Amino acid sequence: MRPNARRTNLGLAFVVPAALATGALAFATGSAWVRWIAVAHAVAASAIVVLSPWKTAIARRRVRRRRASSALAAVALGVSVVVTVVTGLLHSTGVLRTLGPASAMQLHVASALASVPLFLWHLVARPVRPRRTDVSRRAVLAGAAVGTASVASYGALTFLANELGLRGVERRATGSYEIASLDPGRLPVTQWLDDSPPPSGVQTLTVDSGGAVRRWSLAELSAFDDAVNAVLDCTGGWYSAQEWRGVRLSRLLSPDAEATSVLVRSQTGYTRRFPITDAPHLLLALRVGGRPLSVGHGAPMRIVAPGRRGFWWVKWVASIRTDDVPWWWQPPFPLS
Asked: What is the pTM of this model?
């Protein structure tokens, strides 16, 4: 392998997983420090673009020498990475936010996921074994040059977006765009993956806390009027600030219960587990903007989880249970 090809492949073997990891973290995180994760994600993506001319030249040489099946897989990897970078750029600048029924963010995530098995295949098929020269002065300087160019590219794009007044400058730290704030009638209806509205809403809520089980009727829950102003930040690329009313979860749990986490289950079987310390901040909402929830928005009751992304906001809540299972003992993203 030629030295320049080796350095390029080593660089991509580092920045591609970095872009995937930071993208996953940004996708999952709703707190303030997501801004720095998003910046790291953008810089890693810029590094892929910086290295792309060298990788393109390498790929052309390799494709000519490979079998058709190997060449096809390599081309598929290249296409998926290009689509991932382009859709990410379109979304971040606001130049194109939707393409047909899908958003640019959804296409960005889908193409990134499609690239993972192809990237792993590429690493196995074309392994780059470590050498002493990989940490030589020349290699370190080359890596520093790529890093500097990546940061400069990100800075230049940000400056250009501001100068041109592109919508991308209005994004939240998570990368989402504002829509229908304080206007629940226009609030988008979305579900996580294959979760869908149940045929009929539950009329009672089962709460199992500290071994004591109580069933709350909708009338009893409606008597509460706790209010929370919170931002629903959807992983589809939008956010909306609304006033939600209902009852804080801590009111429904036994004060004597010793537990580590609280498990919220939807009528559809969808679940999310929260730290027990989150209970005072979580709202079981029955109303939004002064009106009852619609079915698409989780009627008759849903979770409002300030500071967490939309897939934590469980809809059509049927039961709540506290136990000693750690809150992190679950997939970082729901599997369905």
From this structure: 0.88
